[in-house]
Amino acid sequence: MSNIERTLSIIKPDAVERSLDGQIKQIFLSNGFTIVQERKIQIEKSEAEKFYKVHETKPFYNDLCTYLSSGPIVVMVLEKENAILANRELMGSTNPKDAKENTIRKKFGLSIDKNSVHGSDSPENAKIEIDFFFKA
Ligand code: CMP
Question: Which atom number of ligand 1 is nearest to the Cα of residue 52?
């Protein structure tokens, strides 16, 4: 049975700063994703804090929010069969050191913080995260 899903993808400041956003978008397209919506923006730290609220008790929360708001990002809605899992596989492990060959984080990630991309981790969070950036 078909299971077309939408997921939120963010190309993070480290990748946009290195002008990797075009290459990363091309990787999504050549792996069968459709980019349904896309915006290049810079967010305030307070917005990053809202976006990453699930991590608010973690020791890395403050640095994470400072970082996501430190420069331009590209936020996208990606669509594909089983898009949430497919995107997580294509991104690779959170820490680029642990990511498999040919994943985006292995290719472009610099560290666990500067890991180039974010992707929703569940259907529930995909809806919340898409609405966060794209709700009319
Ligand atoms: P992301 O998928 O955007 O979700 C939360 C981010 O927190 C994660 O990618 C990492 O960049 C960052 N992070 C920093 N330290 C850690 C850690 N110890 N464990 C998980 N994520 C971390």
Answer: 5
* Amino acid letter, residue 79: E
Q: What element of type H or E holds 17?
A: helix 13-17
Question: For residue range 109-121, what is the model confidence (pLDDT) as tens digits?
Answer: 999 999 999 999 9
Helices (H), the chain: 13-17, 21-30, 45-51, 61-68, 83-91, 104-108, 123-134
Mean pLDDT of the chain: 98
Q: Where are the domains of the chain?
A: 4-134
CB-based pocket (< 6 A), ligand 1: 55, 60, 64, 94, 112-113, 115, 118
Residue entry with tokens 């990797």: 20
Sequence-separated (6 or more) residues with CB below 8 Å from residue 58 = 64
Catalytic residue among 118, 119, 126, 133: 118
Which ligand 1 atom is nearest residue 67's CA? 11
Mean pLDDT score, 47-68: 98
CATH 3.30.70.141 fits domain 4-134:
yes
